[in-house]
Design goal:
By secondary structure, the protein is an alpha/beta fold. It contains 14 helices and 22 strands. The chain folds into two domains: 276 residues, Aldehyde Dehydrogenase, Chain A, domain 1, CATH 3.40.605.10; 193 residues, Aldehyde Dehydrogenase, Chain A, domain 2 (3-Layer(aba) Sandwich). Bound molecules: nicotinamide-adenine-dinucleotide and 4-oxobutanoic acid. This is Succinate-semialdehyde dehydrogenase, mitochondrial.
Length: 499
């Protein structure tokens, strides 16, 4: 029987993928307390279905199940773990349209973009597939003649994976997939806005043949989340907390884990600078900015946020951008394959965009592009503002201090390279940054000077599974993807043998 409480313009090929139960061990469960919470469709704010609001005791049980499962699963040879991961990835690929539809339904992401996040997720699983059998240790020449030293890499135990709403399939795949690949078991707590993608991934993990308790999905309402977060930090059976989300929450969870010497991976917020120097290829920079700023309607942690354009090309750049954005972005029903621009995930997202917009206008920003025709409760059209040059108080504006996480591009003129780099580095976060130039020396100089974990040079999209994704400063610790990503979920053990 369908769990849907509303009709949707998409017929799932496999309706059983859309479920509203948690997956713990080999069981599909509701909350024993009978509590649940609503999942909303951001396109119209109607209720899609209800999912369980698990209690702290139920989360403890899920951790216990994952721990029991770990004791067996950790012994599986790498070749067998690889075969399971391969099967899971292939099943996700075979069901990509249905998974994309579930993502579109609960996140309001246009269907075409949702297909992209499914692909991004399976790209990660494919990448881990290639790495699993490479994870090993080394032999170390010992100083003592009768000793031999080797190292091995072992799984850690139960990994708690807390994921955000903004790219639900990919964020779970790159975290849980990596942890499971090297022999850990996972308790995944998805964002309350997007639990259905996580549940669908669990269905496919079950079909792939993962032993019970290897991949568990628990859903929790926003009200109960802090208590559950505390349990995941405090429970000694959880050996690693892997979190993707806001800096404020990540900082808190990291502190709680530090008290217990618990391993963490923290993929947190950004506030990406995007600098266009006077010698940039303008067409390339305009297209790069559109890709970086308006992807997912501006709702990614690596979206451009503080856009600096050299004063000598500012006017031309702004005009070309304002002309190109409506050509490049098409809004409409999120189910229409032509639509590549959708609503924000909720009213919370909308309120933040409005706050940054009002703040910029209060400080003298001019509106270069906006369309306020109503198109659903959480929709905001791509908007471009420009600030005057020479502002003394630029660093105090709201968008200078926190990511807008929405489709609001605020352009700022600058005169000197040092000034642009200083402003770019003036935030407490350091995830991604971008700049456009044709000057070879400047490429090295600025790339080395920018305080971020990832730098895009004449490119507006850097995300790729083979690149170590992550930030410095308050954008987090650890890297996802890249050559060493599986090692994050292992412990290095040194074994000294006397002969
Ligand atoms: N660096 C990255 O890789 C990356 C990727 C995606 C999103 N993000 C960041 O995520 C943020 C957007 O996501 P969000 O608004 O859902 O962030 P959020 O921090 O509010 O929520 C993220 C997750 O944490 C959970 N959570 C919230 N409070 C918690 C608590 N006290 N204990 C345990 N869990 C808790 C939420 O339920 C959700 O599952 C942005 O700041 C964005 O930059 C970062
Ligand atoms: O929102 C953050 C993740 C998006 C990405 O990996 O490009």
């Amino acid at each position: 029987m369908s769990v849907l409480l509303k009709t949707i313009p998409y017929q799932l090929k496999d309706p059983s993928l859309l479920d509203n139960k948690c997956f713990i061990g080999s069981k599909w469960v509701e909350s024993s307390t009978g509590k649940s919470f609503a999942v909303l469709d951001p396109e119209d704010d109607q209720t899609i279905c209800h999912v369980p609001d698990l209690s702290r005791r139920e989360i403890q049980e899920a951790i216990g199940v994952a721990h029991e499962s770990f004791l067996e699963y950790r012994r599986k040879p790498a070749r067998e773990r690889r075969a399971l991961l391969r099967k899971w990835a292939d099943l996700i690929k075979a069901n990509k349209e249905d998974l994309a539809a579930i993502c579109t339904l609960e996140l309001g992401k246009p269907f075409t973009e949702s297909l992209g996040t499914v692909k991004y997720g399976t790209d990660y699983l494919d990448w881990f597939d290639g790495l699993i059998e490479q994870v090993g240790g080394e032999t170390i020449p010992a100083a003592r003649p009768d000793n031999r030293i080797i190292t091995i890499r072992q799984p850690q135990g139960v990994v708690a994976a807390i994921t955000p709403w903004n790219s639900p399939i990919a964020m779970i795949a790159r975290k849980a997939g990596a942890a499971i690949a090297v022999g850990n078991t996972v308790v995944c707590k998805p964002a309350p806005e997007t639990p259905l993608c996580a549940i669908a991934l669990a269905k496919l993990a079950e079909r792939a043949g993962y032993p019970p308790g290897v991949f568990n999905v628990v859903t929790v309402s926003p009200e109960r989340t802090p208590e559950i977060g505390a349990e995941l930090c405090e429970n000694p059976k959880v050996r690693h907390l892997s979190f993707t989300g806001s800096t404020a929450v990540g900082r808190f969870l990291n502190g709680e884990c530090a008290k217990r010497m618990k391993r963490t991976s923290m993929e947190l917020g950004g506030n990406a600078p995007f600098i266009v120097f006077e010698d940039a290829k303008l067409g390339q920079a305009v297209d790069g900015l559109i890709a970086s700023k308006f992807r997912s309607s501006g709702q990614t942690c690596v979206c451009a946020n503080r856009i600096l354009v050299h004063e000598t090309i500012f006017q031309e750049f702004a005009e070309r951008l304002a002309k190109r954005v409506p050509e490049a972005l098409t809004s409409g029903s999120v189910w229409d394959p032509k639509t590549n621009y959708g609503p924000l995930y909720s009213g919370k997202g909308l309120a933040k965009v409005q706050q940054h917009w009002d703040d910029a206008v209060k400080h003298g920003a001019k509106v270069l592009l906006s369309d306020e025709s109503p198109r659903g409760p959480n929709f905001v059209s791509p908007t471009i503002l420009s600030l005057p040059s020479g502002m003394d108080n630029l660093a105090s504006l709201a968008f200078s201090n926190e990511e807008t996480f929405g489709p609001l591009a605020i352009l700022v003129p600058f005169a000197k390279e040092e000034e642009a780099v200083r402003y770019a580095n003036s935030t407490s976060t350091g995830l991604a940054s971008y700049f456009y130039t044709s000057d070879f020396s400047r490429i090295w100089r600025v790339a080395e000077a920018l305080e971020t974990g990832m730098v895009g040079v004449s490119v507006g999209l850097v995300s790729a599974v083979e690149m170590p994704f992550g930030g410095i400063k308050q954008s987090g610790v650890g890297r996802e993807g890249g050559a060493h990503c599986l090692e994050e979920y292992t412990e290095l053990k040194a074994i000294t043998i006397g002969i």
